[in-house]
């Protein structure tokens, strides 16, 4: 057993204060000021900005006036881990798409879309807001002096909050199951954990901050985003000041004629933090990420040149991703078969070798996973959905979570975005006619809330917390408890503050993102289901074929990569949704980071590569610090500048 450090009460209390602050300011920051989302993606700039404030100001002052009482490395790691888990809640993983579907079923229903006839009869009234007046106040704003009708919201909000927390808990148990294999056996790099680990290092002697913050190379890296964002911030408030646009070149101008127009939209964007992250990705993985993003665009061009329907090709790529993920999960189980054999043996015998370092025993991790999986299935079954279909959809969701977590912790991608929803697997394999109206309507709500936009789903954050605790010998069992505490605090806080702002401003009026989250996305998700109910479809044979193609391609890439050292394309690049939104906006920054690493390794070797490491950590830290500064400015003056417009 490895000696571990217990978690201190004061680190928990400091983290709780930080959680409250981020949840409280996120709705105003996200919807009204135009600043970068402070709790977004798999690497939250708000979390790092707050950690910077704690390390460079609060703890530095603490070390100066009372060195013995200053925060230790383990305490700083605890604070970061709790904030990282919280970051999933005031963003896309939870609150961003939570309220729109349950109120939109009533408010957005019109005689033309026939939702009142096609959708509402298949949902019990405790699953959505059925009172039109209450829904209207949410979308259009509450009249002055009128209180929020909490009673009308109570049942649907409590039901779907419980469902979401069960799904989040399921991801925590999945992370417990994969922790040892990915962290200790395969020893993934966890590139996103590098900066918070460096920031949490203990200063030497009587120093106020660690040596990391004094490195000249770090200051060089910091200078680039600070200069760019300072200049652009002045331009935002004083347009006569010149600026350096982050969206460098819109290639669509040069792709105006067929078949090249099929590759639109294609942009060259420069985001300093994304360049920094790319530097910590293995060269073969980095090459695969940006190269396959371009190859996928060329695939669309070729399809258009041959007279194919480009829209159908896009749909086929989503189906290919389904098959790709299925083969990858099988591969994970095969490559980790030694670990999973021991895991299964421990589940049924109750004994395992060296479970002391695990956050949870194998048996309890397995039982927790099964309980949450069946619990989520049972909740939707209570509403009238087919339990077998729901179970299959949730297993598909587990598959997606596993693959996308692998993308994040193995490659260091700070921003992932799938190209299909888990409920669409049932549409393809079973056909909408066999699924039935009730099951499709009920699944449409988690489809919009949970399945559609997974850029902030919680499982990678849990894995990073396990990595941080392992690297600093923090008690992982205690850590698991505070991670659940963070979830239980962040869920109601983020809902309350989002709920209050949207009622005050009106969800349809609170900026472009609020409109898109609560009006456009809800309409898209629910219109899709109403179309399927009105025009039911049989099994999608072409979709199943595309799934087979995706599985075959990723299988081929896995075979070539693991058998031939010279093979240049890593399978991860194909699995990263090369034409999805994430790679669409960050591929060029990933290319720049890869190019810098390639040139430094080629002409300077490992020595120069290591020497340049702080420069690229500085690029990341600079984006985060400037993001925190502009969030503060936005809260004061009511408008701001976005350092990371993705």
How would you sum up this structure, described in words?
By secondary structure, the chain is an all-alpha fold. Helices cover 68% and strands 1% of the residues. It has helices spanning 9-33, 45-65, 73-86, 99-107, 115-118, 132-140, 150-185, 194-199, 216-237, 272-279, 283-305, 310-335, 337-349, 362-382, 387-411, 422-430, 432-435, 437-451, 459-472, 476-505, 511-534, 541-563, 571-575, 581-611, 613-637, and strands spanning 247-250, 267-269. A two-stranded antiparallel ribbon has the order 1-2. The radius of gyration is 24 Å and the shape is globular. It starts with 8 loop residues before the first helix and ends in a 9-residue tail after the last helix.
Any key phrases for this structure?
globular, mainly alpha, two-stranded antiparallel sheet, 25 helices, 646 residues
Task: Write a concise synopsis of the structure shown.
The chain has 25 helices and two strands. The chain has helices spanning 9-33, 45-65, 73-86, 99-107, 115-118, 132-140, 150-185, 194-199, 216-237, 272-279, 283-305, 310-335, 337-349, 362-382, 387-411, 422-430, 432-435, 437-451, 459-472, 476-505, 511-534, 541-563, 571-575, 581-611, 613-637, and strands spanning 247-250, 267-269.
Secondary-structure topology with pairs:
Blueprint: H1 9-33, H2 45-65, H3 73-86, H4 99-107, H5 115-118, H6 132-140, H7 150-185, H8 194-199, H9 216-237, E1 247-250, E2 267-269, H10 272-279, H11 283-305, H12 310-335, H13 337-349, H14 362-382, H15 387-411, H16 422-430, H17 432-435, H18 437-451, H19 459-472, H20 476-505, H21 511-534, H22 541-563, H23 571-575, H24 581-611, H25 613-637
Antiparallel strand pairs: 1-2
């Amino acid at each position: 057993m490895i000696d571990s450090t217990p978690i201190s009460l004061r680190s928990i209390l400091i983290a709780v204060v930080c959680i409250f602050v981020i949840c409280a300011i996120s709705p105003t920051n996200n919807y009204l000021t135009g600043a970068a989302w402070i709790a977004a993606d798999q690497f939250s700039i708000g979390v790092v900005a707050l950690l910077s404030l704690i390390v460079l100001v609060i703890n530095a002052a603490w070390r100066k006036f009372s060195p013995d009482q200053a925060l230790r490395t383990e305490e700083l790691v605890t604070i970061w881990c709790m904030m990282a888990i919280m970051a999933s809640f005031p963003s896309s993983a939870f609150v961003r798409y939570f309220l729109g579907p349950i109120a939109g079923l009533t408010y957005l229903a019109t005689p033309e879309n026939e939702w009142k006839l096609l959708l509402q009869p298949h949902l019990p009234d405790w699953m959505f807001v059925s009172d039109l007046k209450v829904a209207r106040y949410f979308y259009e704003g509450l009249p002055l002096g009128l209180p929020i009708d909490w009673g009308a919201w109570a049942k649907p909000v409590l039901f779907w909050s419980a469902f979401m927390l069960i799904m989040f808990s399921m991801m925590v148990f999945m992370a417990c199951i994969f922790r040892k294999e990915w962290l200790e056996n395969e020893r993934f790099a966890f590139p996103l954990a590098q900066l918070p680990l460096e920031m949490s290092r203990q200063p030497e002697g009587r120093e106020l901050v660690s040596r990391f913050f004094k490195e000249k190379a770090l200051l060089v890296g910091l200078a680039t985003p600070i200069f760019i964002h300072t200049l652009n911030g002045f331009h935002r408030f004083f347009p006569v000041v010149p600026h350096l646009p982050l969206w460098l070149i819109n290639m669509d101008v040069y792709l105006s004629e067929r078949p090249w127009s099929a590759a639109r939209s294609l942009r060259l964007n420069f985001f300093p933090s994304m360049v920094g992250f790319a530097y910590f990705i293995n060269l073969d993985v980095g090459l695969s990420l940006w190269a396959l993003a371009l190859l996928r665009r060329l695939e669309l061009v070729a399809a258009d040149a041959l007279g194919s329907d480009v829209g159908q090709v896009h749909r086929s790529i989503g189906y290919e991703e389904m098959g790709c993920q299925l083969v990858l999960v099988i591969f994970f189980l095969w490559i980790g078969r030694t670990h999973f054999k021991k895991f299964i043996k421990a589940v049924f015998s109750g004994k395992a070798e060296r479970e002391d370092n695990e956050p949870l025993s194998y048996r309890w991790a397995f039982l927790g996973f099964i309980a949450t999986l069946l619990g989520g299935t049972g909740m939707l079954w209570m509403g009238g959905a087919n339990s077998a279909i729901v179970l299959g959809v949730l297993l598909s969701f587990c598959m997606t979570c596993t693959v996308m977590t692998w993308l994040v912790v193995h490659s260091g991608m700070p921003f992932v975005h799938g190209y299909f929803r888990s409920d669409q697997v049932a549409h393809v394999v079973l056909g909408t006619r066999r699924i039935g109206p009730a099951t499709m309507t009920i699944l449409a709500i988690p489809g919009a809330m949970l399945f559609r936009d997974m850029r902030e789903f919680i499982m990678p954050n849990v894995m990073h917390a396990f990595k941080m605790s392992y690297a600093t010998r923090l008690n992982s069992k205690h850590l698991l408890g505070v991670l659940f505490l963070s979830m239980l605090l962040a869920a109601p806080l983020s809902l309350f503050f989002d709920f209050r702002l949207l009622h005050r401003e009106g969800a349809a009026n609170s900026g472009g993102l609020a409109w898109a989250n609560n009006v456009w996305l809800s309409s898209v998700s629910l219109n899709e289901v109403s179309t399927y109910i009105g025009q039911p479809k049989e099994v999608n044979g072409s979709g199943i074929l595309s799934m087979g193609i995706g599985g075959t391609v990723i299988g081929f890439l896995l075979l070539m990569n693991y058998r031939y050292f010279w093979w240049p394309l890593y399978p991860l690049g194909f699995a990263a949704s090369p034409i999805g939104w994430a790679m669409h906006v960050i591929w060029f920054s990933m290319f720049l980071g890869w190019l810098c690493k390639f040139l430094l390794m080629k002409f300077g070797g490992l020595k120069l590569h290591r020497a340049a490491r702080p420069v690229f950590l500085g690029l990341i830290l600079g984006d985060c610090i400037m993001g925190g500064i502009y969030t503060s400015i936005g809260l004061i003056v009511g408008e701001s500048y976005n350092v990371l417009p993705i």
